[in-house]
Amino acid sequence: MKTAPRLGVGLLAALLAGASRLAWPAPPTDQPWTLEAGNWQDGKDLLPEPVLKHLQKGDYWFKVVPVDAKKFHDNYAKKFWDLTAANEGKYELDEATCGLKDKATGKNPEFVVGLPFPKVDPNDPQAGCKIAWNFTFAGSGAGGGGATFTLNGVDSSGEFRRIKAFVHTMGYQGRLDGKLKDNPEKLEGQGVTAALEPQDVEGFSAL
User: Fold this and answer.
1) Rounded distance, CA 193 to CA 198, Å?
2) pLDDT for res 24
């Protein structure tokens, strides 16, 4: 399975996984709280440096809320949770890269569906990576999708740029309808995106 670096694993997951590494008092995990300039240390070593600088200056703030376990569970079908339970003990992580491996073969898994790590111990030093992989596969069940959207560039003076674009994706991993036979390159997924407006960027696309 070929994989690519992923962003947006989720601020809450990162903070919960890394809170024990911080010298600053850990934020609450059972109630909403805000990460802002006054407590920016709670984001140290967890956020990219440019983002952390904006946080320190007060340009950014993040509302962090605890996960409602029941609502999260009810977002997914019984089939998803049955497949997740069946993954117990199947997968492990590469120590050097955080890559997902089939425990039986020691290689990249051919096909994964459901959360690869049904239970994550917060004290596990690999908890962050496991949460990241669970996050990845939590959104893969539908097999892809598409949307038209706008990207708004905003700074302290307001909006300075708006681009309208579309994206269409197809996933090979995590599909609740099963593994696709036609995937000779063993891709995790593929997609196309293109800009629609304004005119100076219309037609710009990426695969």
Assistant:
1) 15
2) 53
d(CA 73, CA 158): 38
Q: What pLDDT score was predicted for residue 156? A: 80
Measured from the Cβ of residue 38, the count of other Cβ atoms closer than 10 Å reads 10
Give the pLDDT confidence score for residue 191 in this predicted structure. Answer: 96
- Quick one: tokens of 133? 């992989």
C-alpha Rg value of the chain to the nearest Å: 19
Percentage of residues in the chain with pLDDT exceeding 90? Answer: 74
CA-nearest of 95, 86, 94, 92 to 113 is 86
Identity at 60, one-letter amino acid code: Y
3-state secondary structure the chain: CCCCCCCCCCHHHHHHHHHHHCCCCCCCCCCCEEECHHHHHHHCCCCCHHHHHHHHHCCCCEEECCCCHHHHHHCCCHHHHHHHHHCCCCEEECCCCCCEEECCCCCCCCCCCCCCCCCCCCCCCCHHHHHHHHHHHHCCCCCEEEEEEEEEEEECCEEEEEEEEEEEEEECCCCCCCCCCCCCCCCCEEEEEEEEECCCCCCCEEC
**Whole-prediction pTM value?**
0.72
Rounded CA-CA distance 128/197 in Å is 38
Q: Report the alpha-carbon angle 132-137-139, nearest 5.
A: 105
